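Review this today:
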Amino acid sequence: MGLFDNLKQLGDLKKMRDQAMEVQKRLALIKITIEHKGITVVMTGDQKVQSISGDMEPGKVTEAVNEALKQSQKVAADEMKGLMGGMGMPG
């Protein structure tokens, strides 16, 4: 591997990093609202809880937050599929 191959790899890594950062920014803007057993959880696509309201029984809150996490993971996976497809990786 020559110097030019190493430079190309560095350029490719920077491009991948930039694309990953763009996906992260998009995920932060996505709002996911889950209503589960009388509890509403609003979470961003990057899995930050924005609000929890409703019947604050601890078991119900845990279930609702877990459901919101599941949905945010699906959203993140869909966003990452686009990124991976742009890198020529198998998907």
